[in-house]
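Two proteins follow. First one:
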Amino acid sequence: MAEISKPRPGENMRLLDALQYPLPIGGIVSILHRASGVMMAVLLPLIIWLFDTSVTSEISFDRFASAFTAGIGFVPGILVKLVVLGLIWAYLHHAMAGVRHLWMDATHQVTKEFGRSSAIATAVASIGLTVVLGAKLFGLY
C-alpha cells in the first residue's frame, strides 16, 4: 500500500499569504542589510564621481559642493541630498548589520533573544546616526 505524503508546511503558500504573517525585527534588519548592499552597489558610480570630484582640486570641490544646492544637470539639489542621505543610511546600516552578523558568528550567540536585541540595536543605531549626519547634510548645524 502506497503512503500518501503530506505537503510540507508553506509549500503551497503564495506571496500574499506570506505577507499576512508578521516578520520579526531580525528578519526586517536582515532584509534591509541585503537591500542596503544592493543600494550601495547600484549607486557606486555616483559614489565614485562624488569622491573624485571632491578631491581633485579646489575648483572641482566647489563643483561638488554646488551639486547639493544647484543640483546635477536636471536633478535638483534636494534630490541629490536625499540620495546621499539614502547612501549614508545604506552604509551605516550595512556596516552595523555586518558587525552584528560577525559578532553572532564569532561568539555563537544565535539565540532568539540576542537576535532580537541586536537587531533592535542595529536599527536604532543606524537610524540615529543617519539622523545626526542628515542634519549636518541639510545644514541644521
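Second one, unrelated to the first:
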Amino acid sequence: MAVREVVHYGDPILRKACKPVKDFKKLSSLIDDMFDTMYEESGVGLAANQIGVDLNLFIIDISGIEEETESVHIFINGEIMESSGESWFEEGCLSIPDVRLEVKRPEFIQFKYQDENGTEHIEEMRGLLARAIQHEMDHLKGVFIVDRVTKTVKMTVENDLKMIAQGAVTRAKTRKAFVL
C-alpha cells in the first residue's frame, strides 16, 4: 500500500475518457493505494485517472461527513442509467486544490457498476453518495467541476487554474504509465 501523487488540472489524462476494467484479478493493490491516497489528501472520492491510471474505477468514503451503513465504496465500469431531481452543493476536487464551487447535479441516480470481483450491481442512490458518484464519473469522462459552472463563475478561478495547470503539465511528462 502506498500513497500516490494526485494528478492536477492541466494533465492530459484528466481530459480523456477512461478505459473499462477488464482484468479484475490485479486490482487490489491499486485500490489499496487509491484509498491510502484519498485518506492522505482528506478526500471523499478518488478516480483512478486522478493518480494517473487510465481505468474506469473510483472509490468513495463519505463516512466522515454522513453516517451510513456502508462507508467504503468501490465502483468499476460505472454507468448512470437514470437521474432525477436537482440539488446545489459546494464541491471541491483533489485535482484542483483549494478551488470550491457550487455545482448543480441531480439528487437521485440509478447506477450500474461492477464491484472489485466483477459482479454487476444496479442501485438507486441519493444525497451525498449520489453526488460523489456523479463527481467521480465526471472525472472518468474528462469533466471537471469548472466545466459544470457558468463562464462567469469559472472566470473567478481562472488564475488558480492556470497556476495549477502549469505544474501539472510538467509532472505529466515525467509520469510512468501504470501497468496492471
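SUMMARY FIELD: The chain has a mean pLDDT of 92. Strands lie at 45-47, 57-61, 72-84, 87-92, 100-105, 108-114, 120-126.
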